[in-house]
Design goal:
- The longest helix is centred in the N-terminal third of the chain and has 20 residues, at 126-145.
- The protein starts with 5 loop residues before the first helix and ends with a helix.
- By secondary structure, the protein is an alpha/beta fold.
- The protein is built from twelve helices and 23 strands.
- The protein has helices at residues 6-18, 41-45, 58-61, 116-119, 126-145, 149-155, 165-181, 210-223, 317-335, 370-384, 388-404, 433-447; strands at 27-30, 34-36, 55-57, 67-77, 82-87, 92-96, 100-102, 106-108, 157-161, 194-199, 226-229, 233-237, 240-243, 248-250, 253-256, 260-262, 273-274, 277-279, 292-294, 299-300, 349-353, 359-363, 368-369.
Length: 448
């Protein structure tokens, strides 16, 4: 099993429950022994939740039958049935397999924009969320200490790129953080704090539909967030960002959440892809290769529930979790010589938490706003957490934040380290298909 995201963890848990002792050995390759609950990262960045709250321990949630390899898969040889793994110590090892389930997830999708990866922050890891919180509070501290009006203005402007769920929730939650924090800075004019949310698309979160999308737009604009649609970044620099409409925004904070792309691991297989995602059957099998399964963000799983030719499941947590359970059953069926079943799942709806009492939700097609939508959003996230400890931590954090607010403390533990997009994606760690074959063949010769 490669990857411990929503799909991978659900698959491993199902395999542990359904396989008899001694029937198979389960190995999980992941750099971290926790499942990160990604939808709640904006609340970590804004200080509503502590980082530990959204990192669900694999050691606690599994039944201890799974062998966990602390590292990342950097190549897969389909013919030799070998997964090449780089451990967290840097050692490269070959892991042979009979069946492999690939759920390596995704990386942040970037474009050839000058200065982007050297300047922008991402929001896909726990470290990035924690760093962004420190960075935003640092900008308030430095602006308060500065006597230079230009520096003060640039430190109090923030730009978020991406009008999907991640970008919208990130901008909403962090804007609430700065508005609450500025009350503790009597030398700062609250009017100087400006948040910009931009997206090249013509609508904000189009998946919500026109009415809820407009509701979210109105909520954010009422709070003072400047939203620009049909706009992206032309270039980025440490102290300013240039929009494609020609505007130049002085800022020290650029957060990039403009979509995701499949993990580079998929390219090491040399197999057919659909927009970078591995092309698989409805059973989540790789065609013409026995024992190879793929799911989640890295796989183009046909969406049979839509009944459209060529439609694939979107890269959402909802699909990933259900695919994880389903692919585990198909792996067991293949192991026991039984027929596999195609994956079919109707979308249950969408939830968007905008912080405080603001939210928009669409459970089972019912449009909700405000407190009812917030109750649905947080109820869904809370129920999706896999351990009682995680649920208790999250609920306690929500209650404490609602009652006592935030202390706006920055930890400083990453203050001297870079934390830009290029520092967290590790896209240069993967092997090419030729390098994978050469490495596997070389290791085979060395053992003979």
């Amino acid at each position: 099993m490669v990857g411990a995201g929503f799909a991978g963890v659900e698959c491993v848990r199902r395999l542990e429950r359904k396989l008899s002792p001694g029937e198979a050995e389960i190995t999980l390759v992941t750099p971290f022994a926790y499942q990160l609950y990604l939808p709640l990262l904006p609340q970590v960045a804004s200080g509503v939740l502590t980082p530990q709250s959204v990192a669900v321990s694999l050691r606690r949630s599994s039944k201890y039958r799974t062998r966990i390899i602390p590292g990342g898969a950097i190549g897969v040889d389909l013919k030799a049935k070998v997964c090449v793994v780089r451990s967290i110590t840097g050692k490269i090892v070959n892991e042979p397999f009979d069946y492999i389930v690939l759920s390596p997830g995704s990386i942040t999708r970037t474009f050839d924009i000058p200065g982007l990866t050297d300047t922008a922050f991402g929001m896909k890891t726990l470290a990035e969320a924690a760093y962004i919180r420190d960075h935003v509070i640092t900008q308030l501290d430095l602006a308060d200490a500065s006597d230079d009006p230009a520096e003060r203005a640039s430190r109090l402007q923030f730009v978020v790129v991406g009008g999907g769920y991640a970008g919208t929730e990130t901008a909403a939650c962090l804007q609430r953080l700065t508005c609450a924090a500025v009350k503790r800075y009597p030398r700062l004019d609250p009017k100087l704090i400006k948040w910009h949310l931009i997206d090249i698309a013509p609508k904000l979160m189009p998946e919500l539909g026109d009415k809820l999308g407009r509701s979210a737009l109105e909520i954010l604009r009422r709070r003072g967030i400047e939203i620009s649609l049909g706009v992206s970044i032309a270039k980025a620099a440490p102290e300013e960002v240039t929009f494609t409409d020609g505007r130049v925004i002085p800022t020290r904070t650029l957060i990039w959440t403009a979509g995701v792309a499949a993990s580079p691991l998929i390219a090491t297989l040399g197999a057919e892809t659909v927009k970078g995602r591995l092309a698989v059957t409805a059973e989540m099998c790789l065609p013409d290769h026995d024992g190879i399964f793929a799911l989640g963000d890295a796989a183009a799983v046909p969406d049979l529930a839509k009944g459209q030719d060529g439609a694939v499941c979107p890269p959402t947590a909802q699909h990933a979790m259900r695919q994880g359970v389903h692919v585990a059953d198909n792996v067991i069926a293949a192991l026991r010589g039984q027929p596999m079943r195609p994956y079919v799942h109707k979308d249950l709806g969408l939830v968007v938490d905008l912080g405080g009492a603001d939210a928009v939700s669409k459970p089972l097609g019912v449009e909700l706003r405000g407190v009812p939508a917030q109750a649905v959003a947080r109820g869904y996230h809370w129920s999706a957490l896999r351990t009682g400890v995680a649920k208790t931590r999250v609920m306690t954090n929500w209650l404490l934040n609602a009652v006592a607010g935030d202390d706006f403390v920055r930890t400083g533990f990453q203050a001297r380290k870079p934390a830009k997009l290029k520092d967290f994606e590790y896209t240069d760690a993967y092997l090419s298909p030729e390098e994978v074959r050469a490495h596997v063949e070389g290791a085979g010769r060395a053992t003979t």
